[in-house]
Specification:
Layout: H1 13-26, H2 32-42, H3 57-66, E1 73-79, E2 85-90, E3 96-103, E4 108-111, E5 115-117, H4 126-130, E6 132-135, H5 138-154, E7 162-165, H6 175-188, E8 196-200, H7 204-212, E9 218-222, H8 228-234, H9 243-255, E10 261-267, H10 278-288, E11 291-296, H11 310-322, E12 327-329
Parallel strand pairs: 4-7, 7-8, 8-9, 9-10, 10-11, 11-12
Antiparallel strand pairs: 1-2, 2-3, 3-4, 5-6
Helix pairs in contact: 1-2, 5-6, 7-9
This protein binds S-adenosyl-L-homocysteine.
S-adenosyl-L-homocysteine binds next to strand 8 and strand 10.
Amino acid sequence: MSPDRPNLLGMTPPELRETLTAHVRQRGQPGYRARQIEEWLFRGDARSFGDMTNLPLPERDVLGDSFRLDEPAVDTVSESSDGTVKHLWALQGGEVVESVLIPTRHRLTLCISSQAGCALKCRFCATGWSGFGRQLSPAEIAGQYRASARWAAEHDRGPVTNVVFMGMGEPLANRKAVFPALTILNAGYGIGARRITVSTVGVIPGIAALAERPEQFRLALSLHAPVTELRAELIPLEKRYPLDQLIKALEAFNRKGGRRITFEYTMIREVNDDPALIAPLAELAHRVQAFVNLIPFNPIPYVEWKPSHPSRVREFRDRLEVAGVPAAVREPRGRDIDAACGQLRARRHGIHR
Ligand code: SAH
């Protein structure tokens, strides 16, 4: 058995086809075997090569000697009283990451992680406070989907309809793995590009690279403040990629056509919820035709901040709407299991206390 067998779950469909076609040819097997194996990976949910029952037994053994089919291992599953389900995944080398299944009326959204920890240190986000571990691989990113979708099916939650890169990490700071993972989710597992959202705190080269992709993946920008001074206090990356350049990058993204941008705005009491900020926020939203998602701040152990008062959140929404900007309040989900936005920090047996 080769020591570093490639993991098939980290390959895009074209890579997979090339690898498998070469493999079956070398084995003297008919060409359609490659297609059969691919079906088992993307549709058949095979857990091992032994599950691939339409292949000859010896071929299953040889596949197992040549390749891996490794998903992140389930460490813990926690269920919120609101139906949100958090998976804690144990990765090779001891890192852990989280993903969250969020049921709403007509959807089941899966929120996945792109990095173990995060290097960007936004002040309101627990993941940033917990520090950076390492980049995830395409297999570890797409594997969160594969294993979560199976969990959902086995627990009568239906199919995963949407995937958002809003778990731990900054996806556009791990393009090397996130871009192939997008292809795997879309072209492999068949999730429509418009049902996949990449959320970024504003990595401009990543936004430009995403704009170049032909698929209509959605983009969310974690804005959190419509003026640069305030934004810099919350988000250190603002100093490297300031708001005016960020908005230009979003305008360029828009020119590629057909893809709605969302602004995420976490509302923190007396920090970024002054009504005087509504006008500049509306102006930015107009410039890039963004939809604004207002997220009441979820408390984290590292700062004293509190969520904005619900009436203030409503005031923001109503006045944005009056200004012609579509806006919604995102209800916090899974707070009781630390699964809400910004609360993910892979707390495991008290390691991070
Ligand atoms: N790094 C990416 C992906 C993380 S997404 C990004 O920043 O977009 C997680 C979303 O939750 C982001 O919009 C983030 O700003 C927001 N968030 C972080 N901490 C939060 C908190 N404590 N309460 C509410 N939202 C928070």
